[in-house]
Specification:
By secondary structure, this protein is mostly helical. It is built from 6 helices and no strands. α1 packs antiparallel against α2, α2 packs antiparallel against α4 and α4 packs antiparallel against α5.
């Protein structure tokens, strides 16, 4: 079994994923550090800075990381399927299969994350918005209203996105089975999803 060569575009996407992971670790560490430093009285940190860092670490970072991961997986998946026609007697290595050809479609984790965060955001912001408006906090109400609109828009996009990704993932699994015969242990490994539900699915699927 010889490893399929992947292009510079796939390797660049992989490097971007590594950089995103490192930047995410720095962001999380900074967010935790500012909260601890302010709570302990070591360094005064403005509340807006703390809130921004915490929100970015909790909501923005996961979506960005999963999106960058999806780009890497999609590029590799497309090239592996294309290479199968040129090298019919070879199959990807187990690592390439696990990286790029899992049972789930690469966009499924992204859509699920957008759906979950959009639902939580809509619930929390929809609850807080009436109180802000009742207190006459126009700026806070505008910010909460904008966040509520973004959350609802994310939900509106995520639901059909999940369905499309599930259909494409099923087609990709069928195509993978037609191209390569895989050992049972490899098949079980490919059934583990990125978000860790263990059977290629997601909560609520």
């Amino acid at each position: 079994m010889v490893e399929f060569p992947l292009s510079a575009r796939v390797r660049a996407a992989r490097r971007l994923l590594v950089v995103t992971s490192a930047a995410g670790a720095v962001l999380v560490g900074t967010a935790v550090g500012t909260v601890v430093a302010d709570a302990a009285g070591w360094v005064p940190v403005p509340g807006g800075v703390r809130a921004g860092l915490v929100l970015a670490a909790l909501f923005l970072l996961p979506v960005v990381w999963v999106a960058v991961h999806a780009v890497w997986v999609l590029r590799g998946r497309a090239e592996l399927f294309a290479a199968a026609g040129r090298h019919p007697r070879r199959r990807p290595t187990d690592r390439q299969l696990a990286d790029h050809l899992r049972d789930e479609h690469p966009l499924s984790p992204l859509w699920w994350m957008v759906a979950v965060l959009g639902g939580l955001g809509a619930l929390c912001l929809g609850f807080a918005l009436p109180f802000a408006l009742a207190d006459g906090a126009v700026l806070a109400g505008a910010v909460l209203g904008g966040g509520l609109a973004v959350s609802l828009a994310g939900l509106t996009l995520a639901v059909p996105g999940i369905r499309r990704a599930d259909r494409q993932g099923l087609a990709d699994r069928r195509r993978r089975g037609e191209l390569w015969s895989l050992p049972g242990a490899v098949e079980r490994r490919l059934a583990v999803s990125l978000l860790g539900s263990g059977d290629g699915g997601h909560p609520g699927a």
